[in-house]
């Protein structure tokens, strides 16, 4: 067996299942989970219709490159969303089976494990695929802790030069999971300058880009590159997905876009990997990328939900409206003396509400686990259920203080 598999850590939800294994939650309370970031709003009818109207495509092998119609729909969306010049749908866009699969496989494409000490850098806390993909590519992950004083942006100035010299791939997540923070244009300029100096590829995970709470939409990596005079998107690959934007996580449909030279190699890898997108899913994806009405309606639901839930939780914990995404990243009241893990376990036991301990989403790095003392809450259910969960959390936390 591949010995690199032994380096993989249990996924956060496996840890949560183990944490709750011997717990019987309070009887009489309906279970409410804020633990998993799985969209619960209804799938738009136009997407379901496009899917079922194109089932004849199941009789053919799909191309890894995807249909021209899908690549043009994605390119058009990028141009409209980020005010970009014309995207070459033949060379700068590639459909993928959701962002998770592509984040993992791009790492296998980019990393040259024959170079001693290969590193894949990522923020901390982070999406665990970043770490796992690094290990299985024969590299090591290097974590840069998010700093609450910097709106949870990592401080890359703290990274030693000898570390930068070994970095081959840098993962960024904007809007961030779990923090919801969005990188600024100055942040992007710093990253591009570092990429130019050291030659690493930037993988920009942007799957939460369409759930935001301010008038201005979050800045994307390709948008920042264009504004900074880098319209060839050199050493930049952006990832997006329909899962959160369009409430279709089960379709496993997304895309990568950016540097055409990297995408040419990525297409070669994927052709051997067998990662072509289902033809009916491709047709439904065209309908989704070409429509913004359902996205605006979806975003309005999240805005209304966060406006009601956030003030309730602010009564008992340090939590603020994020820049974007559907998570609340909260610091629990330290006076209780509970760790984030103990807090999550007792909340489940006594109030049948599931939240994810922040330390499960981070690693001990540079002397600290930046997720410790925090919890992540995914406000993915309808507003009534999220409000009920918030009221229970408030009651539980107030009881701890009594």
From TrEMBL:
Keywords: Aminotransferase, Transferase. Its EC number is 2.6.1.17. One of its GO terms (molecular function) is succinyldiaminopimelate transaminase activity. Residues 32-392 form the Aminotransferase class I/classII large domain. Its cofactor is pyridoxal 5'-phosphate. It is an enzyme of class 2 (transferase). The keyword Transferase applies. CDD domains: AAT_like. PANTHER family: AMINO ACID AMINOTRANSFERASE, L-GLUTAMINE--4-(METHYLSULFANYL)-2-OXOBUTANOATE AMINOTRANSFERASE. This is Succinyldiaminopimelate transaminase. The gene is dapC.
């Amino acid at each position: 067996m591949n010995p690199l598999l032994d380096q993989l850590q249990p996924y956060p939800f496996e840890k949560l299942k183990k944490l709750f294994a011997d717990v019987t939650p309070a009887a009489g309370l309906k279970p409410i989970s804020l633990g998993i970031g799985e969209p619960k709003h209804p799938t738009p009818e136009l997407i379901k219709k496009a899917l079922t109207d194109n089932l004849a495509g199941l009789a053919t092998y799909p191309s890894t490159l995807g249909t021209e119609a899908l690549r043009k729909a994605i390119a058009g969306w990028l141009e409209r969303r980020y005010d970009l010049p014309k995207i070459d749908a033949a060379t700068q866009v590639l459909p993928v089976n959701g962002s998770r699969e592509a984040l993992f496989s791009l790492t296998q494409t980019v990393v040259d494990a024959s170079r001693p000490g290969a590193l894949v850098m990522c923020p901390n806390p982070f999406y665990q695929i970043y770490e796992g993909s690094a290990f299985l590519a024969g590299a090591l992950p290097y974590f840069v802790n998010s700093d609450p004083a910097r709106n949870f942006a990592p401080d890359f100035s703290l990274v030693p030069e000898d570390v930068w010299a070994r970095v081959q791939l840098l993962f960024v997540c904007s809007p961030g999971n779990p923090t919801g923070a969005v990188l600024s244009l100055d942040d992007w300029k710093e990253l591009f300058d570092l990429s130019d100096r050291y030659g690493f590829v930037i993988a920009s995970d942007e799957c939460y880009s369409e759930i935001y709470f301010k008038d201005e939409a979050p800045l994307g990596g390709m948008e920042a590159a264009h504004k900074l005079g880098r319209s060839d998107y050199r050493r930049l690959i952006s990832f997006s997905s329909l899962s959160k934007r369009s409430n279709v996580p089960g379709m496993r449909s997304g895309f990568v876009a950016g540097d055409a030279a990297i995408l040419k190699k990525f297409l070669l890898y994927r052709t051997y990997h067998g990662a072509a997108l289902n033809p009916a899913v491709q047709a439904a994806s065209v309908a989704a990328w070409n429509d913004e009405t359902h996205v605006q309606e979806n975003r309005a639901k999240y805005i209304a939900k966060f406006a009601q839930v956030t003030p309730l939780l602010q009564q008992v914990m340090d939590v603020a409206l994020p820049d974007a995404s559907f998570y609340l990243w909260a610091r629990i009241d330290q006076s209780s003396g509970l760790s984030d893990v103990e807090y999550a376990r007792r909340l489940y036991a006594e109030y049948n509400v599931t939240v994810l301990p922040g330390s499960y989403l981070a690693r001990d790095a540079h002397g600290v686990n930046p997720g410790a003392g925090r919890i992540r809450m995914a406000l993915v259910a309808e507003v009534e259920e999220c409000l009920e969960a918030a009221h229970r959390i408030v009651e539980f936390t107030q009881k701890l203080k009594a």
